[in-house]
Amino acid sequence: MKKVGCSSSLVQVLRGVRIRPTVGFADPFELLEAPFSPLKERKPGVRVVAVEPAGGAVLSGGSAENHCIPGIGVGFIPDVLNRSIIDEAIPVTDEEAFRCRRRLAREEGIIAGVSSGAAVHEALTVASRKNAAGKVIVVLLADTGERYITTGLFAGKDDSNAAVG
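and the corresponding structure tokens:
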């Protein structure tokens, strides 16, 4: 897994990587355009996938409802969002996001927030598709879990109902 800072250009990071049709995931909407727009311009086969909570899947045509994934799914589509770069929006349940957040910590040593768990869960879902074989999948994790350590987020196995703030 290659880790980069927010100021790094995704195009620079992927220099030398043979870009096939790629799927890029970012959890807050603002992370979609800056890194993926230039990549998509240079590599037309790139697909950009937005991740949103199942309880607030407005990009997928759903309604804004309650969910437990802080940082994403604000219940509306901001005017500044360039929807033309989004090829697909995938809703993720609270349980799926929390489970993958725990898996990131346990298996990769990455202390991430729930929205990062949502992004990785859906990247893994897309990676399991038959048409994903041989493709590069890029996932941007926008939040660290450090700010949640003293909250119920790290309370235990069934933390999808835990308070986060």
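(Above: one complete record from the training split.) The radius of gyration is 15 Å.
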